[in-house]
C-alpha cells in the first residue's frame, strides 16, 4: 500500500472517529438529561425513560467497540502494517478496506472467527 492510500484511509478513520466521539458525547448528554428528568415522573414515564436510557447505553457500547477498532487501525497505520490481516498476515483487499477501513482481518479470517464464536 502506498503513502497516498494510507493517508486516504487515515483520513477516513479519523473522520469516523470524530463522528463516534460526537455520538458518544450526545449519548452522554441525553443520559444526563434522562437522569435529571426522572424527578416527579409517573411510572409509565419512568419506564419509557429507562428504556431510552438502556437503548442509548447499548448504542454507546457498539460505538465504543468500533472506536477501539478504529484506534487499533490508526495504530497499524503508524506501525506501517495497516492493510495486513492480523490473523494470517496476507494483504486485506482494497474492496474490504473501502467498506470497513478499521478491519483487522481479511474476509476469510473474519468469517472463520465469526463461525468459531457462534
In short:
The protein is mainly alpha-helical. It contains four helices and no strands. It has a single domain, classed as Four Helix Bundle (Hemerythrin (Met), subunit A).
Describe the protein's architecture and organization.
By secondary structure, this protein is mainly α. The protein has a single domain (3-117), classed as DksA, coiled-coil domain (Four Helix Bundle (Hemerythrin (Met), subunit A)). Helices cover 75% and strands 0% of the residues. It is built from four helices and no strands. α1 packs antiparallel against α2 (43-78). The radius of gyration is 19 Å and the shape is elongated. The two termini are 33 Å apart. The model has no long low-confidence stretch (mean pLDDT 84).
What are the main properties of this structure?
mainly alpha, about 120 residues, about 0% strand, Four Helix Bundle (Hemerythrin (Met), subunit A)
